[in-house]
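new request in #modeling-help
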Amino acid sequence: MPDASLVAAILVLAAGTYAIRLFGVGFGQSRLALRLQQWSDPAVVVLLASVAATATLFEGQGFAGWARTLGVAAAIGLAAMRAPIVVVVVAAAGVTACLRAFGVD
Amino acid sequence: MMLFVRSLQRTSSLLPPTLAIAAAVLVVGVAYGSAALAAGFPPWLVIAVAALVLSASSELLFVGVIAAGGQPWIAVVAALVVNVRNAVYGFSASSFLPRQRLLRLLSAHLVNDESVAFALAQPQPAVRLRAFRILGVAILIAWPLGAALGLLIGYLAPDPSRLGLDAAFPAIFVAILIGSCPRSAAVPAVVGAAIAVAATPFVPAGAAPILGLFGLLTLVRMRGRHA
């Protein structure tokens, strides 16, 4: 058995995450939410961009290294050329892996 | 993605883009599974978390904090902060989710970055619920399955960072954004990303993307007249 506090933490995470989702779905039809919705659609885009940018550049609070950064840069290039999403994702991992194989990190 | 969206308008077939996104989620799931194993998580727990939390970025963050020696409770708070954005997705999703109570409760679990973005990318509102459901269920299968594969690869390849899988996670968002981002959201997205990046060294793990929401303020001038 793993650490009990770890299991408890995971249960709290699962329940909390579901509660957050339900909150959004449940209040989505309220008048306030209808007003919020003109903001929530662009907010989705902004959040995705923010998550992508920080996950690219940071490992914890330090720079994640050039291998990952250039891998994601390759993904941006391919996505701009309308490559299928699987190609984009696999290329990102491939470029990063190759750079690391050559000692860039 | 745009190519997919275009072909989708013609054939109204949701399956090819769904499979493509699910395959990408699977690849990220592999990254998550191998990272979790490296952090010392028991395999059954990794898969249980994948299915029950079903939120890639928060799980990667959770594992990352634990792997860095953080307390489980800090990891939970950080992961929940990351998941706050699901409430925003929920707002958007509520417009097309079924009214029937049980279905709505079940559908809420499928709310995530990809499923809501995919639904909103559908030009016809009538197709949105179907798009959301198909991709939501596909991710519910692909994410834990990817995690299981990641565990397997983690056993076989002792240093998963060599496979570059950590780059797959941001790449999936890049692909979705560039494929389906409305032009009007491009400026707030870039500004928000810049704020998040600038803030990351100074705020608790996982809070920076939330600060990125300040990028929305660039819309205020445009929207002010209507609101």
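bot summary: Chain A touches chain B through 80 residues (CB under 8 Å).
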